[in-house]
Specification:
The chain is an alpha/beta fold. The protein has two domains: about 90 residues, 2-Layer Sandwich (60s Ribosomal Protein L30, Chain: A); about 45 residues, no CATH class. About 40% of the residues lie in helices and about 20% in strands. It has six helices and six strands, in the order αβαβαβαβαβαβ. A four-stranded mixed sheet has the order 1-4-2-3. Strands 5-6 form a two-stranded parallel ribbon. α1 runs parallel beside α2 and α2 packs parallel to α3. The longest helix is centred in the last third of the chain and has 14 residues. The chain is elongated and about 50 Å long. About 15% of the residues are buried.
């Protein structure tokens, strides 16, 4: 019988975006693909050593952290087997500017650099316009 941890680690290796839950699965995602995590939710009043390590690792990687009730975590994970932690993974890949600039190209390159965007609707309007103009890459300031 395959345990739940193995199932979620298989999903991680396939880089499937979405919700990842459980201490081992979230810790592995933080270790291997921290750039793919939008937010980590931890159960309110969590005192488990592994959950605290996950929080520390998320903070080191400047990942947004939220505290949630057991019910909210169950709702996010669509199961009550979340072990007190849920990560929201993204299919957006975050790269350093240097990595983007050093990629080989055969066509002209249009890079959009954004900073201090406060309204998400403005952000998506800017991205849609840039897409129409041929931009293939966007750079945002690091999360604070």
């Amino acid at each position: 019988m395959q345990d739940e941890q193995t199932t979620h680690e298989d999903e991680l290796s396939a880089n499937i975006p979405g919700v990842v839950y459980g201490r081992h699965a979230v810790a592995e995602l933080l270790k291997t693909h921290p750039d793919r995590i939008a937010k980590v939710y931890v159960q309110i009043n969590a005192r488990d050593k592994r959950l605290l390590e996950i929080l520390i690792t998320a903070k080191r990687n400047r990942i947004s952290i939220g505290k949630a009730s057991n019910q909210k975590l169950s709702d996010l994970a669509k199961t009550n087997k979340h072990q007190g932690v849920v990560a929201i993974a993204s299919d957006i890949q975050f790269l350093e500017v240097e990595d983007v600039l050093n990629q080989p190209r055969t066509t002209p390159f249009f890079l959009l650099i954004l900073d201090a965007i406060e309204d998400p609707q403005n952000l998506w309007a800017i991205i849609r316009t840039a897409e129409a103009a041929g931009s293939g890459s966007y750079h945002f300031a690091a999360r604070s």
